[in-house]
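Worked example 2:
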Amino acid sequence: MPPILLNAVVVPLYVSTLTLPAATAGSRPASIGQALAFAWSHLSWSVYIPVAATILAGEAAVVLLLGLPLLGLVRRYMNPSREAL
């Protein structure tokens, strides 16, 4: 669950600010603090919410529908005592 929720919260934060004209026309921030201040002050909820929802759905599909069954297969058929040295 952490990769699903973390990506659904963090990625839309910078995607919603990078789509602003001020983000492409302005100068690059000198520090992470300046970048976060810019992102927070220019946050567009009308962009953030749909992007967060689609990233949440995509991450959940990949992790839950593909990742967990694959992990189960790996655990089932991989025997640690028979690993090659």
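The mean pLDDT is 80. The chain has four helices and no strands.
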